[in-house]
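# step 3/5: fold
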Amino acid sequence: MALRDDINVPLLLSLGTMTGLLVIVAMIGTEALVYRTRANILDRRYNDQEKNGQVFYRQVYAPQEKALALSKAEALNTEQTLFRIPIADAKDAVIANKGFVPSTQPVK
């Protein structure tokens, strides 16, 4: 029986492509499994702490709720150069300036 001297290029290309896709799918699946496992472990820990009577506050980032709850202007730093103002006051300032944001430079 003689050995063939030619190479089956289409077969090699299809096998290489399929192997590459399989490796990518396996990597994505493994990463998803690891992240999901970590999330489950953290959830179990938080739930166990709450069952034991410990209060664990999960931080929720909700800037819209904070902005809507703001009722008066407040300083954000000790030098009182940066302020947070209510949305209604900001709208009034923009309307008073005919659609332009007021200048942040001090008045001379």
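# step 4/5: annotate
The mean pLDDT is 81.
# step 5/5: archive (pending)
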